[in-house]
Amino acid sequence: MKHLNPSFEAIKPSIGSSFTTLRFSRNENAKANHWHYHPEIEIVYVGGGSGKRQIGSSITYFKRGDLVMIGSNLPHCGLTNENTKNDFEIVIQFKKEFLGKEIWQTPEMAKVAQLIHSSKSGLVFGDATKKLLEKKIISLHNASSLKKLSKLLDLLNELANTDDYQILNAGKYYLQTQVEDNERINLILNFIKNHFREAISLEEVSDIANMTVPSFCRYFKKITNKTFTQFVNEYRVIHSQKLLAEQPMSITEICFESGFNNFSYFNRTFKEYTGKSPSDYRKEFSQVLS
Q: What residues does the HTH araC/xylS-type domain cover (predicted)?
């Protein structure tokens, strides 16, 4: 069986700048929708649309756009694809040392330094912050030279001074420990992403990781703080949430399209992860949008 290689992404700063900003129209960044990692810290703003947010071992559903900050070497998937229906996407990427190491020792940068440290686990910002910062992010991308740099520092300061965020991978978390771990876990996560609709045996995924089943189970739990079954079930539930919100499919169809082969098990697992049944989730989502 041929497996996808883990993806290390090499990033070059924009011409005339010490960091990178990219703007993509709808569907234009779909090629990034695979598990990858890079040493650069990344801020991603998705203008509108909805989809799956896959950062570290956290897989969640977003709607009405998104604003996230992803720490250095934290494995993640691109946030948009042909089904996201976003208006645009802006990606900002910079290395922590792009202004030198000494700047992080200054008192003025203390809060930003803490923000960057917190981003190691992945941060998602709330609706109020998304709305407040959209124009600033667009303006940053369009600026050049010193204005571009000053706008980045202003954006980092805004993000560092808000409480309107959630940590995506809270608690015990190891995905950034070593690049070797990233390469192996990216291989595993890409396999899950491409095969979650199928039955995946522990023997099969252990073979991909080149480990025995017991060693793989210990390794996966240490890296993600979840068992392999928990992680795959969560991935399937998040996919079913997206289908329930966006597709006029029956709940039975969604059950099987999401990789569950038993309807009662799907209902029980969905409620375990979301606190509500699939039908209640669809009703509540429809009421929010109506």
A: 186-284
Residues ≥6 apart with Cβ < 8 Å to 72: 38, 39, 40, 41, 95, 96, 120, 176
- Residues 68, 125 contacting (CB under 8 angstroms): yes
The answer to whether the CB of 191 falls within 8 A of the CB of 4 is yes
Q: Report pLDDT digits (tens) over 119-140.
A: 999 999 999 999 999 999 999 9
- The residue assigned the tokens 């010490």 is 18
Q: Could you give phi then psi for residue 195, rounded to 5 degrees? A: -130, 15
Domain 7-167: give its CATH superfamily. Regulatory protein AraC (2.60.120.280)
Q: What are the tens digits of pLDDT across the range 136-179?
A: 999 999 999 899 999 999 999 999 999 999 999 876 554 544 56
Query: Residue 91 CB: number of other CB atoms within 10 A?
Result: 22
Across-strand partners of 44? 68, 91
Between CA 20 and CA 92 the distance in angstroms is 6
Write out the two tokens for 202.
């522990």
**Architecture in CATH of 196-289:** Orthogonal Bundle (1.10)
